[in-house]
Design goal:
CATH architecture of the largest domain: 3-Layer(aba) Sandwich
Number of strands: 19
CATH superfamily of the largest domain: NAD(P)-binding Rossmann-like Domain
Shape: globular
Distance between the termini: 21 Å
Helix content: 25-40%
CATH topology of the largest domain: Rossmann fold
Largest sheet: 8 strands, mixed
Mean pLDDT: 91
Number of domains: 2
Strand content: 15-25%
Radius of gyration: 22 Å
Number of helices: 12
Amino acid sequence: MKIAVPKERRPREARVAATPDTVKRYVALGASVAVESGAGAGANITDQAYSEAGATVADRAATLAGADFVLKVQRPQTRSDGGVDGLGDYPNRAILIALHNPYGDLVGVDDYARKGIVSFAMEFMPRISRAQSMDVLSSQSNLAGYKAVIDAAETYGRCLPMMMTAAGRVNPARVFVMGAGVAGLQAIATAKRLGAIVSATDVRPAVKEQVQSLGATFVMVESEETKAAETAGGYAKEMSEDYRRRQAEFVAAHVKTQDIVITTALIPGRRAPILITAEMVSSMKPGSVIVDLAVEQGGNVAGVKPDETVVVNGVSIIGHTNMPSRLAADASALYARNVYNFVELLIDRKTQQIAIDWNDEIVTGTCLTRDGKVVNTAVAKAVEEAGVGGAAAEEPSP
């Protein structure tokens, strides 16, 4: 088996899909590992460190040549990106593992199928106990929630904790976290550690105890609808127009008293819901800060701009995309371990050969393309509706 780790080429992507630690583990599985020169630079991993771990460091062409597995953080560049076709030097029928964002590049998914690539989307990992060690959304969101608070604290022109001095008292900052998933819970914990007064909201009543256990106040609009506001996978459902209206009224009253707001609300496969309107932004005190962690899916905040800090009436709206990449070393270490745990599932340790169990719910849940077809039903439907190409979901051969 040959495992290839090419350098990430998308803007603002500093992570890498394998570290020296996981390279050693792949070698122990019987694989040879090739890493493109400079692949780990953004995460402060040198080519020498990869070589010492047992990898071959080479240029892109040599790295990808004959690869059985290709490990990436983000999807390769495809026709939809313009410019150079990033799939051009990928071996046909290679196994490609990455965060594909398939709904954001349906052309790319169709290209995978046309090239015969077997692709697995790590963001589709089932939320089951056996897959926890492979859950990249959790590992990366954890870091995003932490970094959101750090970025907010840097922009906010005051202290977060209360301070008693001989010259008087400095009041603590008030931090409001919208969405209590992995990112939101880490944001709550980080803001509390920094001494802020923290409150949080979510449409799922089940997270109330988690929020309170971190020392924050849980606030929400309760209704019969919220009792079924969580999907089987643990994500928040899209709420009705009536609920969104009542929630907006509640949030508007709460937000105007806050110094920092962190928004984290995402709905898989859908545009992020607007939680903070322009009127709410205008109601906040000058010097307040909002960090929108949903900016890559359209944003939760009116007026947010990707990779910019917009100031409206003295309120700073931070819209960093790819927040985990801003902590590239730790994000790479966690992501690489998630990917290794998944690859290990696809290999027979005794024979040291690829042995994929196509009946495993982890495998079927993450597989995008196989046998020249898009095998994920929801993505295949989106490809068909978009009129992108000829790949359609069919029952793959055993």
